[in-house]
Every structure is written in C-alpha cells, then in structure tokens.
Known about the structure:
This protein is of the alpha/beta class. It has 8 helices and 6 strands, in the order ααααβββαβαβαβα. One iron/sulfur cluster binds near residues 94 and 100.
Amino acid sequence: xxxxxxxxxxxxxxxxxxxxxxxxxxxxxxxxxxxxxxxxxxxxxxxxxxxxxxxxxxxxxxxxxxxxxxxxxxxxxxxxxxxxxxxxxxxxxxxxxxxxxxxxxxxxxxxxxxxxxxxxxxxxxxxxxxxxxxxxxxxxxxxxxxxxxxxxxxxxxxxxxxxxxxxxxxxxxxxxxxxxxxxxxxxxxxxxxxxxxxxxxxxx
Length: 204
Ligand code: SF4
Ligand code: SF4
C-alpha cells in the first residue's frame, strides 16, 4: 500500500533518523518525541521545504523514526540468525518496463535480477546480499511476504520498501517470530524509487 503522497529525502543525511531513534530509544522518550517533532516541523516549515503538507510530513517522519527504533530493538536477535533473506521492492529497479531483463517467477511471486544494468540499485543490492549468503527476492508487492515466509523458513529478513509497506510486513514477521531489519525508501512514488546503499551495507 503506497503513501498517498510522494517524498524525496535523498538529500537528508541518512544518519538523521537513525540518530534521533537511537537517542530517543535509549532515553525512553520515543513516544513523547513525536509531540516535539510536530512542533519542530511546524516551526521550521518542513512541509514547505519538502512540498509535503504538515500531516503528511508528520506521518512520514514518525514512521521512519518508528522503524529505526524497531531496528534497534531487533538488531541483537537479527545478528544471531543464520538463514536470511533480503526483500527488495520492484519499484527500485532501473527500468519498470521490458528493458528490465529480470525473470518473473509468478509462483513466488518475485523477480530475479539478470544484472543488465550496473547502475541499477536492485542489481547492486542483489550482488551484495548474495555474496553474504542471503536469498534475494524482488517483490511486486508486500502481500508476497507471507507466501515466501511460509515456503522458506527464514530466521532473519532485511526488508526494503516504503514505510507503509514495511509496517504491514513487520507486523507479519513479528507474529512469525522472524527477526527483521527495515530499510525505508528515501524516495517513493512506486517507480524510480531510492534506498540508501550505505544503510543496506551496514544492515546486511
Ligand atoms: S539490473 Fe536487474 S533489476 Fe535492474 S533493470 Fe536490470 S534486470 Fe532489472
Ligand atoms: S513505493 Fe514501492 S514499495 Fe512503496 S507501495 Fe509503491 S511499489 Fe510498493
């Protein structure tokens, strides 16, 4: 399920959300931080700088910080896992049409990258994760997650998607006792989306 608004945070330093989540979690102020955030967003006219309205900016930033907090809580458990998968969103492929040479396997369902474009984010992530022993899935939607998890019993999952999609999958994985690490997209829009490769490297 996409956000009903588009955003591009690619020029916001990637440590911004991680640092806020880390500090707020450690100080036990995770929830009260949200009230402060709302005031900061208003005061610094974030919605005008990003093109988002106030309520959308609050939703987005709260989601991103919430996901970072879950990552911190789950990190230790995740590091103890052996069988892992990386779930990538199909919207981060360089091409969304026939120029993408990935094979689509409807029974999973998932794309398998054919490495046609060296500068494709999915290609880079696929190569990196496979070298580290991960199985990689390039998903057409979050609804595929439950099927994958029922078929292959992964202990740990790294999921890349927009915050809305991650929240739904995270609840599912938590119910299945799977340790998850989430990497939210920093530019959404369901095509030509972007995630931070440096964050992926650190997370894997
Ligand atoms: S590198 Fe892979 S995911 Fe990217 S466009 Fe080519 S086949 Fe598709
Ligand atoms: S931005 Fe990507 S991950 Fe989010 S809903 Fe659209 S296609 Fe799915």
